[in-house]
Design brief:
The chain has 14 helices and 17 strands. The chain is an alpha/beta fold. The two termini are about 30 Å apart. It binds zinc ion (ZN).
Length: about 400
Amino acid sequence: MADLPVETIQFDEPTLMLEPLEAAVVTAIRRQGPLSRTDLSERLDYSRASVTGIVGRMIDARVLTEAGEGKSAGGRRPFLLDLNPHLGYVVGVDVGATSLDVALADFRGQILERATGPGDVRGRPDDFFDRVADVVDELLARRGLPATAVIGIGVGVPGPVEFVPGVLIAPPLMPLWEGYPIKQHLRRRFPAARVAVDNDVNIMARGEHQAGAGRGLDNFLFVKIGTGIGCGIISHGEIYRGADGAAGDVGHICVDYNGPVCHCGNQGCLEIMAAGPAIAAEGRARAEAGESQFLAARLAERGTLTAVDVGDAAAAGDRAALEIIRRSGRMIGGVLATLVNFYNPQAVFIGGGVAGIGHGLLSAIRQATLRRATALSTRHLRIEYAPLGEDAGVIGGIWLALENVFVVK
Ligand SMILES: [Zn+2]
């Protein structure tokens, strides 16, 4: 098998099948934590007898385990049921443009081991995923687990993904990865794993939904501002990907028909106007024009400027830097107002590397959004920084893997 090119390997995914009611039990426990048979019967609106039968079979199949006693509602204290953490292990992989974050988790989604380091997506994908697999092997070795213990892998990549085959379509950052069979490559090293691949912004939204600001919210947007701008959409508690996986690519919404040419070929996209590189370039222009002493000094010292430098200047009260950040926030907020009018989310969470450059950006985004969106759509709207930061991706990868482990009959 090792000599075959990866494309020719038969793609026969391992499957753990669940009846619809069994799947509902798993989902309920993932959302609420350990539940008793009575809780499950009430929540799922099935008779206590059917739930008891199903739960018995799921305990025999090692999917569920008894997890101690819950609170009594008068009589005997009920036994709580939880997912068996040792049914199998899952891996979350967050591929950034310049970083790689990998975590091994148990079946309850608890992170056991983690590795973070630099990464480079400009090279060949088979070399890259060999390295990913080596890192996973290392994490497994720390726990004395074999490769076959991995039953699910969730991968987030910085580019547009066609979700079902799990391949990148015209990824601007990594042209060599176009159409590359990531799932098959990883399955060669982890034959018991089902692999899911998604866009990095979608898995960050999933991470915030599971463990961050989006907990308990069914409809929200997660906007990542970094080198580019993208949006993950949680709709009715699940990632909304659209017909082909392209939903949420808001960075290429036009904000200026006469603006600079974006790498997508169009003019004046939000991303080319307002993301990290635009903030940095404007900072440089202002420094060179003698309009910012702070930025001129930083430029002289380091030879280059980033969005973070502009954020530092703004924090020090530099007027030009404040203007740059407000302008960027206004453009992002203008687009967000349109999205809020269209989608009416409960919340918009702002994340990504540029989100951390200071409060000026968030307040400009908030102002522009609230000013332009309709009163009804903003009545309960929260616009906040996403709390998980860089961890959102790898946590979302784990939950993507966990969701994909079972196939519902
Ligand atoms: Zn564009």
